[in-house]
Amino acid sequence: MEERIVARESALPFRALPAAAIRGRGPVQMVRSLLILLRGVAAAMQLLGRERPDAILGTGGYVCVPLFVAAKLRRIPTMIYLPDVVPGLAVRLLSRIADLTAVNVSDALPRLGLHEGHRRAIVTGYPVRPELFTIDRAAARAAFGIAPDQMVLLVYGGSRGARNVNRAIAALLPTLLPLCTIIHVCGREGDQAWLEEAAARLDPALRARYLLFPYLESGSAQSMAAALAAADVTVCRSGASTLAELPAVGLPAVLVPYPYVHQDENADYLVQRGAALKVADQAMLGDGDPAEGPLAQAVRRLLTDGGMRKQMAARSRALARPDAAHALAMALIGLAQRSSA
């Protein structure tokens, strides 16, 4: 899958390495995984011998382990980058052997036994598309056919969507559409059909305010960047990119963390700084009338309280790091220059 993505989105060469997860496996599978990792280290040694890089950037995952071990053996400097607040097992391991650990937010450093100012640590932010900082809000709204004075709620869950969020929004369409236009990016996992059926049952005037998309293509007028710029409030998950994309456009948010990974800590980073509200996945609709449930209340509060939205937008925008890509690049170049000196 990764090879197809690289080929579709860039001209970069792709090289695969044998790798395997170790955590949570039985003894037999663990031995097999260790043998795969050893093969991965051997393959990485050969790859590094051919390519002779001056420095290596890794973004976590067990696939980075054999490469970083081989780099250590060949004395090639490495930098591991953590986009989330909470590191996984691989990043915790790689941070110990990497020459430099870069993180999106400073809250992640203590979880790696590091602190700001440590010689092996740097806080860079998360690189996002530059257009997020410059896109024109009026033009973005015009691309979706939305009037300048209309309140807009953006709902999204990544390219695959977020089924529980989609279901909750479907239940709340009659409640929320009288207050706003909804741009709903539902993902390409089959939810569009039943969401269209739910919308078809609405009064035509409300149905016209529900803009449903499976996905928004980058580079088009109706892009994800345009949707973020057009919105007044968003409901979304709290993956790593949320920590950068929402501040880039100063967008107040109701975050619904995906419950099986460490998205709660990402959400808490924004909530604690006054840039978002948080609703638990299993609590979105509550136990009674969905229109009075936690998600509906949080969204309604933001849509109707202009002062709160303005304050939250300012606090979100204050967290933006427009220089994140440059900071990461300069740190990597610094490692490379140190290697070749």
Structure explained in plain terms:
This is UDP-N-acetylglucosamine--N-acetylmuramyl-(Pentapeptide) pyrophosphoryl-undecaprenol N-acetylglucosamine transferase. Helices cover 45% and strands 11% of the residues. By secondary structure, it is an alpha/beta fold. The strands form 2 sheets. The protein has a 6-stranded parallel beta sheet, sandwiched between helices. It has a 4-stranded parallel beta sheet with strand order 1-2-3-4, with helices on both faces.
Quick summary of this structure?
Residues 2-99 form the Glycosyltransferase family 28 N-terminal domain. InterPro entries: Glyco_trans_28_C, GlycoTrans_28_N. This protein has 341 residues and is an alpha/beta fold.
Give the arrangement of secondary structure elements:
Blueprint lengths: L1 H8 L17 H25 L4 E3 L5 H10 L4 E5 L6 H9 L2 E4 L17 E3 L13 H7 L8 E5 L6 H14 L4 E5 L5 H10 L3 H4 L2 E4 L10 H7 L2 E4 L5 H8 L3 E3 L7 H10 L3 E3 L15 H11 L1 H12 L6 H17 L1
CATH architecture of the largest domain: 3-Layer(aba) Sandwich
Q: Major sheet: order of its strands? A: 7-6-5-8-9-10
Q: Roughly how much helix do the residues carry, as a percent range? A: 40-55%
What is the CATH topology descriptor of the largest domain?
Rossmann fold
Poorly predicted segments: none
Profile the largest sheet.
6 strands, parallel
Q: What Rg is obtained from the alpha carbons, in whole angstroms?
A: 22 Å
Strand/helix succession: HHEHEHEEHEHEHHEHEHEHEHHH
CATH superfamily of the largest domain: Glycogen Phosphorylase B
Distance between the termini: 38 Å
What is the CATH C level class of the largest domain, in words?
A: Alpha Beta
Report the portion of residues in β strands: 5-15%
